[in-house]
């Protein structure tokens, strides 16, 4: 039986390698290498979307939950949102003298408070230090943290069916004390202070603890309100009136002055050319050089091993702690 198991494992490994090889060969065969130009700044790569003159518009994609997981490499982590890599790519586009304008193609439900703020600040720095316009093209979803990073943009363009808004802050934990009691599980906690295990899932939250966390959430919400008020030229009262956590369609968002225009990525590119009076710029998709090969391998490995990509979050869920984490996140 052991021999048969080893033979089966060997065949499975061989099939995996063959599958990866064929997919990689197909990817190379279908890639137009003439449209790929490797940049020298911060290890950035530019793939031509629309050929033009020497000036360029850089399109940078922000896809997935905005969260710094601390993973910078690895087969199974490749292809997901990488916060540090995204910041480096954005910074590279800002520093590249051939880039005349930046378009962020945003499709995200938001994410961490700190990560969203870091992206927001990077956008503002680019605008103030280089004078380059930054536009945002919203995809299916650009909610909560996705809107937070869009707020300072010179122009925000959403599809009429884009889900956006969700202006607010959320902190959540799972209280499994009832289940633990049913299972006869008893928790022993030794702590240095009264609130050291705040938001622990092993017990109910006290009124004082709830007040402490509510003050945190209120402070972060004030930051969110200020960012939108400054970015959109609105009063804080106007922002608070529409910023109660609800989501809006792109069309509704335009009526509320949360977005400027309705349209697609192509419409955003055309608008930037017209508004910024650009003379036939080349449009490039801007990304890290490390993206293509690692992401290809990561995507192939995940699709081969797991058909349901939602299962990829199991490890992170199991390893997550009960530490309170504030999020600018739209949750369904």
Automatic annotation (TrEMBL):
Signal peptide residues on this chain, from the entry's feature table: 1-25
TM region(s), chain numbering: none
Domain called Peptidase S49: residue spans: 128-278
Keyword set, alphabetical order: Hydrolase, Protease, Serine protease, Signal
SUPFAM superfamilies, per the entry: ClpP/crotonase (SSF52096)
Stored CDD domains: S49_Sppa_N_C
InterPro entries in alphabetical order: ClpP/crotonase-like_dom_sf (IPR029045), Pept_S49_SppA (IPR004635), Peptidase_S49 (IPR002142), S49_SppA_C (IPR047272)
Short name of any one Pfam family annotated for the protein: Peptidase_S49
Family affiliation: Belongs to the peptidase S49 family.
Name this polypeptide is given: Signal peptide peptidase SppA
């Amino acid at each position: 039986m052991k021999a048969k198991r080893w033979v089966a494992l060997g065949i499975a490994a061989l099939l995996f390698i063959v599958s990866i090889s064929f997919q990689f060969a197909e990817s190379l065969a279908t890639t137009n290498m003439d449209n790929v130009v490797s940049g020298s700044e911060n290890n950035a790569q530019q793939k031509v979307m629309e050929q033009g003159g020497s000036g360029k518009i850089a399109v940078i994609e922000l896809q997935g939950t905005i969260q710094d997981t601390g993973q910078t490499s690895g087969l199974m982590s490749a292809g997901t949102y990488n916060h540090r890599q995204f910041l480096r790519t954005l910074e590279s586009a800002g520093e590249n003298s051939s880039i005349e304008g930046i378009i962020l193609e945003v499709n995200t439900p938001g994410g961490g408070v700190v990560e969203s703020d870091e992206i927001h600040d990077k956008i503002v720095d680019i605008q103030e230090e280089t004078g380059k316009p930054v536009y945002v093209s919203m995809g299916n979803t650009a909610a909560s943290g996705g809107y937070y990073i869009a707020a300072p943009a010179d122009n925000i363009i959403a599809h009429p069916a884009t889900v956006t808004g969700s202006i607010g802050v959320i902190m959540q934990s799972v209280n499994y004390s009832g289940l633990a009691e049913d299972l006869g599980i008893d928790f022993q906690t030794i702590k240095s202070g009264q609130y050291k295990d705040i938001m622990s899932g092993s017990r109910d939250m006290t009124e004082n603890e709830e007040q402490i966390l509510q003050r945190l959430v209120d402070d972060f919400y004030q930051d969110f309100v200020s960012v939108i008020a400054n970015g959109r030229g609105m009063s804080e009262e106007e922002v608070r009136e529409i910023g109660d956590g609800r989501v809006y369609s792109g069309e509704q968002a335009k009526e509320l002055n949360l977005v400027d225009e309705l349209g697609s990525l192509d419409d955003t590119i055309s608008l930037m050319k017209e508004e910024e009076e650009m003379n036939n710029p080349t449009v490039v998709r801007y990304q890290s050089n490390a993206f293509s090969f690692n992401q290809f391998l990561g995507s192939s490995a995940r699709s081969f091993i797991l058909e349901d990509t939602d299962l990829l979050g199991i490890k992170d869920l199991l390893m997550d702690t009960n530490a309170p984490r504030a999020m600018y996140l739209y949750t369904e």
